[in-house]
Amino acid sequence: MKFEKYDLVIIDELGYISFDKEGAELLFTHLSLRAGRAATIITSNLTFERWEEVFHDPVLTSALTDRLTHRAHIINMIGGSYRILETKEWMEQSNF
Q1: N- or C-end of the chain: fewer Cβ atoms within 10 A?
Q2: What is the C-alpha separation between 57 and 35, in angstroms, rounded?
Q3: Is-contact 35 72, C-beta < 8 A?
Q4: CATH 2.30.36.70 fits 3-93, yes or no
Q5: CB under 8 Å to 27, separation ≥6 — which residues?
Q6: What is the pLDDT of residues 11-67, one digit of tens each?
Q7: CA neighbor of 3 nearest in space, from 34, 47, 25
Q8: pTM of the full predicted structure?
């Protein structure tokens, strides 16, 4: 599958699972091919400074964040979990 042929690729929860060397290089290659050509949305609970924990390679991590953040819209959402809030509201309505 070639990521570059899609108008939009969404990577949800980047950092939830670490990459091995081959996986990190493959993701880097695919995202590099898309950079500046097509839209990519990435969600992560980790700051960019912690992405090295996911990719285990400081050079690759630096190059990847550089490509992804160039001319990007970065939205930093700080706050509580909407899922936890919904669960609390649901529990209150259900009399748990």
Answers
A1: N
A2: 20
A3: no
A4: no
A5: 19, 64
A6: 999 998 999 999 999 999 999 888 888 899 999 989 999 999 999 999 999 999 999
A7: 34
A8: 0.77
The residue assigned the tokens 């097509």 is 38
Alpha helices in the chain (DSSP H): 21-34, 52-55, 58-69, 82-93
Eight-state DSSP code of residue 28 = H
Q: Is residue 9 classed as helix, strand or coil in its secondary structure?
A: strand
Mapped onto helix, strand or coil, the DSSP state of residue 60 is helix
Structural tokens at position 63 = 């190059």
**At 18, which helix (H) or strand (E)?**
none
